[in-house]
Amino acid sequence: MRKLHRRPDPAAPVSRQRLLVTAHGVSATIRCLEKRRGFWHFAAEPGALAGFVGRNGVSGDKREGDGRTPTGLYPLGAAFGVREKPDTRMPYRRITPQSYWVDDPLSPYYNTWVEAPGGGDWRGAEHLLDYPDSYAWAVVVEYNMENIIPGKGSAVFLHCGTRPTSGCIAVDEPGLLRILKWLDPALSPEIMIRPERSGL
After folding, report:
1. Which of 44, 106, 118, 137 has its CA 20 to 30 A from that of 96?
2. d(Cα 200, Cα 197) in Å, to the nearest integer?
3. CATH class belonging to 17-195
């Protein structure tokens, strides 16, 4: 994984797929871009999709529990979900009854997926199976996942949904399935999240 606040790494793979999330308050437009001959172009498919960000908008200084989606550029990690693997080339992890994503900043497992029957060493964690609609299918946004900063925010995903989130990005199920079909791990996909009229 790459650092949250990272300088360009000449050894890192160059992304040729990007999801561009432009926030308009709590609503967002999601566009898919492909890099060809050194330039970004809008992909014909899946095209532009309507979505949502955090219930308190977006922020360049996200904090745990603030209801904001972090701005910036981040790698996209594995896909996961309650349901069976969809039509996607992305690595896929099925949620089990023991699947948790830890959001306790004091836990050594902060901002990680843990399989723990009956819970574990934390004061707070998302029991992923409790969100069968949102996490029918989802993709990990690799925010604050290397050199993890406690309290800087956790569990940022691109997931199913038709309303503002607690700090993720949501798109309806058909839209997410189209994105999953388009994503290709060989192209090192990433996501850029920005407010409207941003210079990012």
Report:
1. 106
2. 9
3. mainly beta
